[in-house]
C-alpha cells in the first residue's frame, strides 16, 4: 500500500523526486534559520515553483497543507529532532521522535515520514536512539501504508570539523545506507560522497530502494547544478535540498533550474540559464 503515497511523491514523467527541505527550525540551531525566518513566505515561494514535495515539521506543515487546490507539493513530514548540529555541543546529545508519528502524518495528509540515522564519532548512544526510533516506526508505517524515508548521516568529529559537518567517505556512507535499507527504509535520503563520481556505489548498495541525495551546506549555483546532473546520471532517484534553495537569492528560479535537471534531463549549463533568466 505504500506505493499509493509514493505515487504522490515521485514525478509521473521522470519517476524522480525533488523534495525541498524547510524543516531546519526543528533543531534549535540559529545558523539554520537563514532564509526561513518568515517560514510562511518561504513555503509559499517554494510551493509556487512546483517541486514534488516540501519537507516540514508537525508545527509548520499547516503552511503547506492550508493552501487551496489539488496541485500543491506533497508533504514529507519530519518526525524526529536532535541537538547534534552546533559548533559547541551540549553535555548530553539526543535524538527524539514525536509521539504517534504515523497518526500525526495521516492527519496532516503526508505522503512520507522522514527520520534520521546518525553515525557520530564517540557518540554511539545517539545512533542507538535513532535505531530505536526506526524500529518503532517501521511496523506502524507498514500497518498504515505510510512510506518511511530514512536519512543516514555520517558526521565528522565535532572537535575536528566544528559544527554540523558530514563525512563524505564512500565506505562509511555505503555501510550506513545499507543499514537503513536493512531496517526497512522505503526511501533513502543520503549525503553525496566526496568523490561525486563514485555515488553509483551508494545506489548499488541500496539494492533498488530509491536514493534521494541531500544538498548539505550552501554552495554556488554552478557547483550544485553540476553535482546534481552527475548524481542523476548515476541513478539517483532525486534530491532533497534545503539551504541551497531557501538561502538562494532567487529560490523560485533555483527550484525551477533543479527541476529541469531532475525531471527534464537538462544539462547544468541549460539549468544555469534558468537561474539567470
List the helices and strands and how they pair.
Layout: H1 2-9, E1 17-21, H2 39-49, E2 53-56, H3 62-65, E3 74-78, E4 80-82, E5 95-97, H4 101-107, E6 112-119, H5 124-144, E7 148-154, H6 158-161, H7 170-182, E8 187-190, H8 200-205, E9 211-214, H9 221-233, E10 238-241, H10 243-246, H11 251-264, H12 268-276
Parallel strand pairs: 1-2, 1-10, 2-3, 3-6, 6-7, 7-8, 8-9, 9-10
Antiparallel strand pairs: 4-5
Describe the model:
The protein has an 8-stranded parallel beta barrel, surrounded by 7 helices. It has a two-stranded antiparallel sheet with strand order 4-5. It contains 12 helices and 10 strands. It has a single domain (2-276), classed as Alpha-Beta Barrel (TIM Barrel), CATH 3.20.20.70. The protein is globular and about 50 Å long. The longest helix is centred in the middle third of the chain and has 21 residues, at 124-144. With 277 residues, the chain is of the alpha/beta class.
Amino acid at each position: 500500500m505504500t506505493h499509493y503515497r509514493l505515487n504522490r511523491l515521485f514525478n509521473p514523467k521522470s519517476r524522480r523526486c525533488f523534495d525541498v527541505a524547510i524543516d531546519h527550525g526543528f533543531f534549535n540551531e540559529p545558523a539554520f534559520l537563514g532564509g526561513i525566518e518568515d517560514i510562511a513566505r518561504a513555503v509559499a515561494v517554494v510551493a509556487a515553483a512546483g517541486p514534488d514535495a516540501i519537507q516540514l515539521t508537525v508545527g509548520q506543515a499547516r503552511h503547506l497543507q492550508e493552501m487551496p487546490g489539488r496541485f500543491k507539493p506533497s508533504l514529507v513530514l519530519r518526525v524526529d529532532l536532535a541537538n547534534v548540529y552546533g559548533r559547541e555541543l551540549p553535555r548530553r546529545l539526543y535524538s527524539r521522535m514525536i509521539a504517534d508519528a504515523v497518526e500525526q502524518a495521516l492527519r496532516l495528509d503526508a505522503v512520507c515520514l522522514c527520520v534520521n540515522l546518525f553515525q557520530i564519532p564517540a557518540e554511539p548512544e545517539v545512533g542507538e536512539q535513532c535505531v530505536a526510533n526506526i524500529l518503532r516506526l517501521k511496523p506502524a508505517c507498514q500497518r498504515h501504508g505510510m512510506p518511511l524515508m530514512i536519512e543516514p548521516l555520517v558526521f565528522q568529529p565535532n572537535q575536528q570539523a566544528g559544527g554540523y559537518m558530514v563525512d563524505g567517505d564512500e565506505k562509511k556512507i555505503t555501510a550506513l545506507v545499507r543499514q537503513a535499507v536493512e531496517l526497512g527504509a522505503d526511501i533513502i535520503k543520503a549525503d553525496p560522497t566526496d568523490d561525486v563520481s563514485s555515488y553509483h556505489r551508494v545506489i548499488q548498495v541500496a539494492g533498488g530502494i530509491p536514493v534521494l541525495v541531500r544538498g548539505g551546506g550552501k554552495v554556488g549555483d554552478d557547483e550544485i547544478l553540476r553535482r546534481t546532473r552527475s548524481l542523476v546520471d548515476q541513478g539517483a532517484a532525486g534530491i532533497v535540498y534545503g539551504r541551497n534553495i531557501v538561502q538562494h537569492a532567487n529560490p523560485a528560479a533555483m527550484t525551477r533550474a533543479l527541476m529541469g535537471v531532475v525531471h527534464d534531463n537538462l544539462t547544468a549549463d541549460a539549468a544555469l540559464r534558468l537561474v539567470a533568466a
